[in-house]
Amino acid sequence: MNRKSPTHRRPGRRAAVAAGLVLAVGLGVSTQVSAQASVHAPAKASTAAAQSVSGTHGQALTRVADFYGAYIDAKGDYPDPDATLAKALRKHYLTPDFAKRLAAWERRNGADGVLRAQNVPVKWTLTDNGAIGHAHEVIVTLTFGGGETTRKIKLFVLVERYNHISDIGTTSSR
Predict the structure, then answer these.
(1) pLDDT digits (tens, 9 = 90+) for 24-57
(2) What confidence score (pLDDT) does residue 47 get?
(3) What's the rounded Cα separation, in Å, for the pair 86 and 114?
(4) What whole-number distance in Å separates Cα of residue 67 and Cα of residue 165?
(5) Of 60, 115, 130, 165, which one is least surrounded by beta carbons within 10 A?
C-alpha cells in the first residue's frame, strides 16, 4: 500500500479531527460557563474616556512631554526611585546653563526644581503656549495629592530651538 493512499492517512486524520472536536466542544462549554457567570455580575460603567498620546519628532510639546513623563517615572513615588536616570534625563534635556541655575534654585529652596516640589505629582498635563522669539513655551500643570488635598502647580517651560529646555518658571515668558 502506498504511504500516501487515503486508507493510510485516515486513522491519523480521524484522530486529529476527533481531538479538534473535543477541544472545540470543551472550549465552547468553558466559554459559555464564563459568559453565564459574568451575566449575573452587575456591569460597571466606565467613566474614563479612551485615552491616546501622540507626538511629533522635533515638536517642543512632545519633547517636554517625553522629559516630564520619564522624569516623573524616574523620581517615582515608590521605595526605590531611579536617581541615576533622573540625573541622566536632566543632562540630556536641559541646557548646561539652565542645569546650573536649576541646581542653585534647588539648594536655596530645598525642592526639586523640575517639579518645583518635594514630592512627585500624581498627574501632569501639557499645553502648547506658542513660540517666543527663537524658543517655544509649554505649560506644564502638575497635580499633587488627591481629594480635598489636591494642589496644582503651573510651570512654564521654555524650549530653545535645538529642543533643550532652557528655563522652567512659575510665570510665562510672554
Answers:
(1) 444 444 444 434 343 444 445 555 678 878 888 7
(2) 59
(3) 10
(4) 9
(5) 130
First to last CA, the chain: 91
HEC assignment per residue over the chain: CCCCCHHHHHHHHHHHHHHHHHHHHHHHHHHHHHHHHHHCCCCCCCCCCCCCCCCCCCCHHHHHHHHHHHHHHHHCCCCCCCHHHHHHHHHHHECHHHHHHHHHHHHHHCCECCCCECCCCCEEEEEEEEEECCEEEEEEEEEECCHHHCEEEEEEEEECCCCCEEEEECCCCC
Torsion on CA atoms 33, 34, 35, 41, rounded to nearest 10: 120
Read off φ and ψ for residue 48, nearest 5 degrees.
-85, 130
Contact 139, 124 (CB under 8 A): no
Beta strand pairing status for 135-144 and 151-159? antiparallel
Residue 131 β-bridge partners:
136
